[in-house]
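Convert to structure. Protein one:
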Amino acid sequence: MRRVIAGFAVVALLAACTALQPPQAEQASTYVLEAMPAAGAPRPRRDLVLEVPPPRARPGFDTPQMAYTQRANALEHFARHRWVDTPARMLAPLIAQALEQSGGFRAVVQAPSLAAANLRLETELVRLQQEFGARPSRVRLTLRAQLID
């Protein structure tokens, strides 16, 4: 009888220990920035090479965390949603691709490059956040660009 009771006690203790295991963490969702080519009128081609360095990002936006706001000037980040890389790093090839597809330049190169460029397009990611202050929510993207000769 003691062995049966001891066996039940061991089984009960093992069952109780499995209930103390931490809950399974929810998987984080990851997202990428993509762009569809814009259809437009052909642009006159200039015999210029444009260099596009990676965009800089303002503080709070140089992270793979996805930002949102619920009230003015209060930047927060989603707990389970992330970018696969920083938004600035994902924007660099999209900017270069869009400028190359415009047909307005002899060549568009991403910095660093060994090619000699006539122009340089400096960009800064000022803001990329989802705003919940109004319904429906909206995404605000602010990009500052400076063309340097």
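Protein two, convert as well:
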Amino acid sequence: MASSAEAGLALSGRWAVVTGASRGIGRAVAQRLVTAGARVLMVARGEAALRAAAAEVGGTALAADVADAGAGDRLAARVHDSAGGAPDILVNAAGAFDLAPVDRIAPDMFNRQVATNLIGPFLMMRAFLPGMKARGSGHILTLGSVAGRVALPGNGAYGASKAGVHGLHAVLDLELRGTGVRSTLIEPAATDTPLWDAVDRAAVPDLPDRALMLDADAVADAVVWALTRPPATAVRTIALERA
């Protein structure tokens, strides 16, 4: 992984948009990018929590629901005003997570996870890709999941959304070759974040112990490592597991 000094030199002055930035992996990524010298626009739905996180991290809070097309367009306009164009870096880290057997998944649960985990990243890509491609540089990094490539019980909705992310990234990666814009998909194994707080572990007793999961900082380190590779190096996918 890159040292702090290397990351600082590479990201100094860069504009970054991080979604899901009020907590968990998104917040950890925002913190790492600020430390590395980037100017970070932190995005999440809950304005109060986001503003508190931005004040602690040193980023700028932009409250928005990335899964809402109209809100996404307004967010893109605000980002363009702040950054003077498309950001140098987009990190899609917003996520929703619920567990249930397929026959017990409520339609609104399924829709919420697909909207947050798949439609949100798509809308952010669509908002900022034209500017990145016109400039000939940029990096889109999306947080997928091991559930997007490995079938796991209870993950019908979550796994479907993350498998969609995997497919979206694969197509995007092909389309970006030769444009100067890079795309990276990071697929972590179970990571200890607040998404697990609402899970009824008694109802799903075979879940992994949170103490044995990856932590958000480990995922954030992988993000910064991918972002700080030389321009001619493409880091297409990273699969992260607890050693």
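The mean pLDDT is 91. Residues 184 and 235 are 6 Å apart (CA to CA).
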